[in-house]
TrEMBL record:
InterPro entries found in the cross-reference section: Alkaline_pH_Ca-Antiporter, NaCa_Exmemb
Limits of the Sodium/calcium exchanger membrane region domain: 36-189, 223-365
Residues that span the membrane, as ranges: 12-30, 36-56, 68-92, 104-125, 137-157, 169-187, 219-240, 252-269, 290-313, 319-341, 348-365
Keyword Cell inner membrane (UniProt): no
Protein name: Ionic transporter y4hA
Pfam family, one: Na_Ca_ex
Cellular localization per UniProt: Membrane
Primary residence: membrane
Membrane topology: Multi-pass membrane protein
Keywords: Membrane, Transmembrane, Transmembrane helix
Length: 367
């Protein structure tokens, strides 16, 4: 009886109710011109569905353990990001030609500077120094830098008119991105799994005994089902909200490219919360797995998907970064490399990365 009551409470929790509520709201609002009140309601439900999706991804992640857990969370968030990009590009016109680039670049900057910087700052404030594994973090950062260069930097310097790839070049970049991502996942979960586990101040693997036991198989399968429901609801509600997002950016006087920043901020907010909680517990490596894993998945999964979608999308696909963006990306890669090499960071490194994030956001509003 006690187990039955506990199971009922879990089903009635907000993380169980919100995905189903979001699906119902999607059915009621799909294809309709919404008044302001319903736009706000859908936005609130959308945010709740994103948080619920990541919660259930964390439950599944806890069941399968690290580093699989961070991988599950990163892939779930990237599915949301890809869906948002594609739905906005399908519904938009020429102004969405750079949406994939703007969103992916924003995700990279928010992940490598925002999530990682916040983790360094919180970890060092709570524990004196933020300790992590330089082998795993360095490998992840190198993969992110390579993916960003292949997909976002090279299009600016090809012979094609404008910052875009030719069809053959786009196909190569998409294939290379997918190969690199799969190779990294294999390295992270198989061959060198220990490189991506939390470490102590002495460099040893952190003990797991003081953490809550993993959920049961039944609970994990329930969360997996609710995760799928939440993802479907998020994709649909994002499509419903897309006109309001674009109108809000335009009304604020921001460049249309800021729509990509809004998408990235939306999908990465839950991961930021998860990484912050891990950092406060001294598990900085988990925070970096989330940060660099999100940046990596954002490029390695988004670019191939967009490349396939471009076969039926109208207009060119502009992926090449502008001059200001190139400088910010280069500086981020250089500073991140210096931060990762020692295997420990102070509040100074955290502050530097957060300032880089602030510079990115400011220049996105005032280019």
């Amino acid at each position: 009886m006690h187990a039955l009551r506990r199971s009922l409470r879990l089903r009635l929790s907000w993380t169980g109710v919100v995905p189903l509520l979001a699906l119902a709201v999607l059915a009621l609002t799909w294809g309709r011109d919404l008044p302001v009140f319903w736009v706000v309601v859908v936005a609130v439900i959308l945010a709740g569905a994103v948080l619920a999706a990541v919660h259930h991804a964390e439950v599944v992640a806890h069941r399968v353990g690290e580093p699989y857990g961070s991988l599950v969370l990163a892939v779930a968030v990237t599915v949301i990001e890809v869906a948002l990009i594609v739905t906005l590009m399908v519904s938009g016109g020429s102004e969405t030609e750079t949406l994939a680039r703007d969103t992916v670049f924003a995700a990279v900057m928010i992940s490598t500077n925002g999530i990682a910087g916040l983790a360094f700052l919180l970890g060092s404030l709570r524990h004196g120094l933020a300790h992590f594994n330089p082998e795993g973090s360095g490998a992840a950062l190198a993969t992110v830098a390579t993916l960003a260069t292949l997909s976002l930097v090279l299009p600016t310097f090809t012979s094609e008119p404008g910052p875009q790839f030719s069809p053959a070049q786009l196909g190569f970049a998409a294939a290379a991105s997918l190969v690199l991502y799969v190779l990294f996942v294999f390295t992270q979960t198989r061959r060198h799994r220990d490189f991506f586990l939390p470490v102590t101040s002495e460099g040893r693997a952190a003990e797991e005994g003081d953490h809550a036991p993993p959920p049961s198989r039944r609970a994990a399968l329930g969360s997996l089902a609710l995760l799928l429901v939440a993802l479907v609801a998020v994709v649909g509600l994002a499509k419903v909200e897309s006109p309001a997002i674009e109108s809000g950016v335009e009304a604020a006087g921001f460049p249309h490219a800021f729509v990509g920043v809004v998408i990235a901020l939306l999908v990465l907010l839950p991961e930021t919360l998860a990484a912050s909680r891990a950092a406060l517990r001294g598990r900085i490596q988990i925070s970096l797995n989330l940060a660099y894993g999100s940046a990596m998945a954002s490029i390695g999964l988004t670019i191939p998907t967009i490349a396939v979608a471009s076969l039926w999308l109208d207009g060119p696909l502009l992926l090449g970064l502008g001059t200001t963006q190139l400088v910010l990306l280069l500086l981020t890669a250089f500073v991140s490399g210096l931060t990762v090499v020692p295997g420990r960071a102070t509040r100074l490194q955290g502050g530097i990365h957060l300032v880089l994030l602030a510079a990115f956001l400011f220049l996105a509003i005032n280019p």
